[in-house]
């Protein structure tokens, strides 16, 4: 329990007035960049970086990491209110968060998301505190074959379920893989699928795809149905905030399971995006109310949010202890570390105890500051839902356009975003599932790289995926998750094959309703 | 024409040459965009931001500077953007030797001749790294072991600097290596630490932390002479203690990665001269020295004909390796 | 008025042609196994084939009259189509105007047009909102986060 002593020392560094003030500034700025799609934590971090060169490294990292927390929380806001996820990791939050907000309960949705996110982050920090050295070792055990196994597991837990027509799911998934392959291929260095457009060599950015598919697509669906969000009562609902937080412990199983998935995916290189999808997929499969997922279920918000933040937090550990940044923001922070004269890597924990433990302590305090601040903003954000649709719709269009443009200052991206909007509308209208498409865009190329790297290492033998216990377990778990729904269905099909064949149209229509 | 008139003429020319730049020198009139052909946190991004900070701090330019990341397609995104902005002197592209190497081996829609070369500002060194507990102590031992077994060499990207060097090692050492490409040097370093690879050829800054942490160590440096001593990295050794590869029987005298600066094509000589001058001023500041030292790079400044010669020589070398490997795009 | 069947057909053709493009362009990268491992085109080729086959299946299923989808014969009514166009067409014009007018001017015009022309808001209010949007964009992006949004060809012609 050496770590406990170090942590207490860390708290004495983190809880000082100037540091608390830095946290508040960082978190507020973070919420701002998180809420504005197109701007993300990397923008904020690189903006602040030059200002921090005069500071103590501890103060600087506290400022930057607080902004990271703020941005993580802020990212969920637009997902829930407008169905526009600003970060890959908050896509899964839209599945139930947006329907709930549309149903007139934005306060509950936001408060639930923030509460469970804070819980996930807290578990992540506790993990870092007590298992730092063990975690670093686990991360080292991951070679290309293990990476592939982790991605496979993420796909397996998410695909192969849900009510969508299976062939439509397959088409959506394959389109996602193809989009992910556009651009330069890491393993061969050659340019793929640019279809004659030179600029496509950079690939299709996730934000561009998602702003169109989700943001514009949803807007089109909403305007067509002449849908107006159910009136939100005008008084500020503090009580609802507390009630939503108070109800969280009832879902303790979902919270703990999601936190565990998040931590696991954060340490292993799966990352927050895979974590949130996987957690959502597993929750949907194992929750008693699984079939209502996609219509505004509380656990459908809790699961991805908890896992996202648990993973986002524990992903900072590989950065500190190994020097691999888990995300773009972490990469910019790492650049900062080097400029402050610190070298991320195994020696950081030995050489720079004050810094490391000050940072870890600040994760506890910073997250608490962040959740308090962000809960204070809930009524403000919820009030956005009261703006009439005719005004909010063009504003969402502008947000999506600016967001798509600022990803890499490219007009082509804006045009593509609009194209994705049409695709998103068509898919939604015809019940093609969007989630597998997005998951494939985000981790499809990584999975492919890992597979081909493994094949290079093994000289083409698939045996590499069963070469040791770790990778075998992951692959077997993935296959099991894939086959589970089939196995469960089998006895039912056996007993009455006739009824399965003549499914009524009403049933099919009802089933299509809950497709996400 | 007598002797005096020639003298007069040349004097006039000198006066003209002296005053000309001052009269017609181009000055930026609006914000300048620095395009880093790498993602946030990469070596090229760090360079662009360091230069931006120095210029802003010393007020070397009146106009604000914005850094934009265009690292897609191993940097091709940034170069294509530079090509598309022909004639625009407000876009400065920061890259590496990628600018001329990439068009050789993949079908990207640019070549370095589409851009205006400004300067090569720093050189990153390459070292041969192995796992800390590997049995071999010198590059010679490594080559012997590699000849006997099947070694896996990791590196950042495919058919890029790391793989070119790997193929050169194969040829020079008469061995066969399996090259496994990863996204970045940092990722490669972690794979070596985890024992999934046998070696890699990272730059100093990419593996500094790992060396300090005792997960991997350098065998030799691909440089004609040892690196400057500097501060100790581990308890006993610093960069200067790493022998050169030639010393140890791996005959590759020199292999470096220049950090390059470009303008789009079709800019005026005045505009190019302004940026050459600006980069020279940047290089004279103490902050620059600090940046070079902290990122363990070598300070150089190549511009004009020297830079051109450097590119030509490097191109020849890469062409040879790429030709032998069958990488050249048709 | 667009029937569900027509929409299914159109979408299947759209995804199918994307699949064909993927298959064709992946052939450039080589498919199969070479000394450098799995060739770069292999996976895109396979996904392309899957997309094409899947789209064909969806196409056939969309056409077959016996398909259960017939329960929803009309996908988009003419009123709905008008509403869709009312949102999408101005948005597309807005995007098309960006290279010329720049992000700030285009977004101000866009806001003004969609609010004032269908008489959703009074002209002065629409003007205020348009100006506020452009200003907010400028302050947040250009000033605070130093993200330069396009100023447009017109602005460049006037020397901005």
Descriptive report:
The complex is a heterotrimer of chains A (516), B (330) and C (160). In chain A, a hairpin with a 6-residue loop joins strand 1 and strand 2. The model of chain A is unreliable at 497-516 (pLDDT under 50). Chain A has 516 residues and is mainly α. Chain A has helices at 2-14, 17-35, 41-52, 57-82, 91-102, 106-140, 144-158, 166-181, 206-224, 238-247, 252-267, 271-286, 298-314, 316-322, 328-339, 348-351, 353-383, 389-408, 411-429, 435-458, 469-495, 497-501, 505-513, and strands at residues 183-184, 191-192. With 330 residues, chain B is an alpha/beta fold. In chain B, strand 6 (151-156), helix 6 and strand 7 form a beta-alpha-beta unit. The longest helix of chain B has 22 residues, at 3-24. The model of chain B is unreliable at 1-23 (pLDDT under 50). Chain C is built from 5 helices and 4 strands. Chain C has helices spanning 4-27, 42-63, 78-116, 123-144, 152-157; strands spanning 2-3, 33-34, 37-38, 74-76. Chain C has a two-stranded antiparallel sheet with strand order 1-4. In chain C, strands 2-3 form a two-stranded antiparallel sheet. Chains in contact: A-B, A-C, B-C. Chains A and C meet through helix 3, helix 8, helix 9, helix 18 and helix 19 of A and helix 1, strand 3, helix 2, helix 3 and helix 4 of C.
How do the strands and helices of this protein lay out in sequence?
The complex is a heterotrimer of chains A (516), B (330) and C (160).
Chain A (H helix, E strand, L loop, with lengths): L1 H13 L2 H19 L5 H12 L4 H26 L8 H12 L3 H35 L3 H15 L7 H16 L1 E2 L6 E2 L13 H19 L13 H10 L4 H16 L3 H16 L11 H17 L1 H7 L5 H12 L8 H4 L1 H31 L5 H20 L2 H19 L5 H24 L10 H27 L1 H5 L3 H9 L3
Antiparallel strand pairs in A: 1-2
Chain B lengths: L2 H22 L7 E5 L6 H16 L6 E5 L6 H9 L6 E5 L2 H8 L9 E11 L1 E5 L7 H10 L2 E6 L4 H13 L3 E6 L2 H9 L5 E2 L3 H9 L3 E6 L34 E9 L4 H15 L2 H9 L3 E5 L1 H22 L5
Parallel strand pairs in B: 1-2, 1-3, 6-7, 6-8
Antiparallel strand pairs in B: 3-10, 4-10, 4-11, 5-8, 5-9
Helix pairs in contact in B: 4-11
Chain C lengths: L1 E2 H24 L5 E2 L2 E2 L3 H22 L10 E3 L1 H39 L6 H22 L7 H6 L3
Antiparallel strand pairs in C: 1-4, 2-3
Helix pairs in contact in C: 1-2, 3-4
């Amino acid at each position: 329990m050496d770590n406990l002593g170090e942590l207490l020392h860390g708290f004495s560094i983190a809880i000082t007035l100037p540091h608390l003030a830095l946290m508040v500034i960082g978190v507020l700025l973070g919420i701002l960049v998180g809420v504005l799609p197109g701007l993300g934590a990397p923008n904020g971090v690189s903006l602040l970086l030059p200002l921090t060169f005069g500071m103590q490294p501890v103060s600087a990292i506290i400022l930057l990491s607080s902004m990271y927390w703020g941005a993580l929380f802020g990212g969920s806001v637009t997902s829930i209110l407008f169905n526009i996820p600003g970060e890959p990791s908050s896509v899964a939050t839209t599945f139930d968060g947006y329907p709930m907000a549309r149903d007139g309960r934005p306060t509950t949705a936001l408060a639930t998301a923030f509460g469970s996110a804070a819980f996930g982050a807290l578990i992540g920090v506790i993990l870092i505190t007590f298992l730092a050295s063990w975690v670093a070792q686990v991360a080292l055990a991951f070679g290309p074959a293990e990476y592939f196994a982790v991605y496979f597991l993420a796909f397996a837990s998410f695909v192969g379920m849900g009510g969508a027509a299976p062939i439509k799911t397959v088409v959506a998934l394959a389109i996602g893989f193809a989009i992910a392959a556009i651009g330069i291929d890491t393993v061969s260095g050659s340019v793929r699928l640019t279809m004659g457009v030179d600029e496509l060599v950079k690939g299709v950015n996730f934000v561009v795809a998602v702003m169109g598919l989700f943001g514009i697509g949803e807007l089109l669906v909403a305007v067509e149905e002449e849908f107006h969000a159910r009136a939100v009562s005008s008084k500020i609902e503090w009580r609802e905030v507390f009630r939503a937080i108070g109800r969280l412990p009832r879902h303790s199983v979902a919270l703990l399971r999601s936190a565990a998935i998040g931590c696991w995916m954060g340490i292993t290189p799966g990352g927050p995006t895979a974590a949130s999808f996987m957690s959502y997929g597993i929750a949907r499969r194992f929750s008693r109310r699984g079939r209502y997922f996609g219509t505004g279920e509380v656990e459908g918000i809790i699961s991805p949010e908890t896992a996202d933040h648990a993973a986002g937090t524990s992903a900072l550990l590989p950065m500190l202890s190994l020097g691999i940044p888990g995300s773009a923001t972490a990469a910019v922070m790492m650049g900062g570390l080097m400029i402050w004269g610190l070298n991320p890597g195994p020696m950081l924990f030995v050489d720079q105890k004050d810094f490391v433990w000050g940072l870890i302590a600040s994760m506890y305090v910073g997250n608490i500051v962040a959740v308090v601040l962000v809960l204070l903003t809930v009524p403000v954000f919820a009030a956005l839902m009261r703006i009439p649709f005719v005004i909010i719709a063009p504003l969402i269009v502008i947000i999506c356009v600016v967001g798509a443009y600022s990803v890499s200052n490219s007009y082509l991206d804006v045009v593509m975003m609009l194209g994705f909007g049409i695709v998103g509308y068509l898919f939604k209208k015809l019940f093609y599932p969007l989630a597998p498409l997005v998951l494939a865009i985000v981790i499809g190329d990584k999975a492919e790289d890992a597979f081909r790297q493994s094949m290079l290492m093994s000289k083409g033998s698939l045996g590499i995926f069963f070469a040791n216990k770790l990778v075998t377990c992951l692959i077997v778990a993935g296959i099991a998750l894939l086959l589970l729904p089939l196995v469960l269905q089998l006895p039912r099909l056996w007993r009455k094959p006739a009824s399965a064949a003549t499914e009524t149209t009403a049933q099919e229509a009802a089933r299509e309703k809950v497709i996400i | 024409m007598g002797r005096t008139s020639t003298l007069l003429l040349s004097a006039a020319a000198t006066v003209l040459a002296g005053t000309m730049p001052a009269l017609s020198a181009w000055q930026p009139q609006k914000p300048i965009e620095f395009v880093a052909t790498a993602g946030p946190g990469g070596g090229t991004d760090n360079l662009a931001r360091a230069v931006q900070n120095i210029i802003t701090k010393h007020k070397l330019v009146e106009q604000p500077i914005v850094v934009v990341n265009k690292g897609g397609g191993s940097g091709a995104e940034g170069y294509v953007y530079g090509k598309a902005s022909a004639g625009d002197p407000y876009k400065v592209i920061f890259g590496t030797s990628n600018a001329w190497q990439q068009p050789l081996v993949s079908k990207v829609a640019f070549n370095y001749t589409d851009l205006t070369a400004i300067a090569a500002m720093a050189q990153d060194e390459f070292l041969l790294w192995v796992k800390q507990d590997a049995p071999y102590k010198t590059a010679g031992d490594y080559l012997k072991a590699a000849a006997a077994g099947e070694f896996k060499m990791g590196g950042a990207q495919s058919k890029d600097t790391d793989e070119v060097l790997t193929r050169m090692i194969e040829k020079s050492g008469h061995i066969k290596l399996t090259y496994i490409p990863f996204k970045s040097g940092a990722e490669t370093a972690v794979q070596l630490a985890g024992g999934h690879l046998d070696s890699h050829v990272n730059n100093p800054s990419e593996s500094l932390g790992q060396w300090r942490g005792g997960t991997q160590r350098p065998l030799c440096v691909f440089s004609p002479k040892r690196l400057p001593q500097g501060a100790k990295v581990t308890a006993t050794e610093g960069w200067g203690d790493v022998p050169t590869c030639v010393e140890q029987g791996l005959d590759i005298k020199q292999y470096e990665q220049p950090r390059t600066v470009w303008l789009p094509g079709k800019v005026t000589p005045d505009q190019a001269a302004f940026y050459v001058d600006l980069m020279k001023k940047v290089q004279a500041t103490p902050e620059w020295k600090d940046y070079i030292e902290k990122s363990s790079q070598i300070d150089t400044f190549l511009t004009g004909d020297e830079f051109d010669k450097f590119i030509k020589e490097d191109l020849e070398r890469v062409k040879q390796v790429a030709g032998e490997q069958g990488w050249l795009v048709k | 008025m667009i029937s569900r069947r027509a929409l299914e057909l159109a979408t299947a053709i759209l995804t199918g042609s994307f699949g064909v493009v993927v298959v064709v362009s992946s052939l450039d990268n080589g498919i199969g196994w070479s000394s450098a491992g799995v060739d770069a085109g292999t996976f895109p080729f396979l996904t392309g084939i899957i997309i094409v086959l899947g789209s064909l299946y969806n196409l056939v299923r969309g056409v077959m009259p016996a398909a259960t989808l017939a329960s929803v014969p009309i996908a988009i009514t003419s009123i709905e189509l008008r509403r869709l166009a009312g949102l999408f067409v101005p948005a597309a014009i807005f995007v098309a105007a960006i290279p010329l007018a720049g992000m700030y001017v285009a977004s101000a015009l866009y806001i003004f047009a969609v609010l004032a022309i269908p008489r959703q808001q009074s002209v002065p209010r629409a003007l205020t909102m348009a100006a506020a949007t452009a200003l907010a964009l400028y302050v947040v992006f250009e000033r605070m986060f130093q993200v330069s949004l396009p100023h447009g060809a017109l602005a460049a012609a006037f020397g901005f």
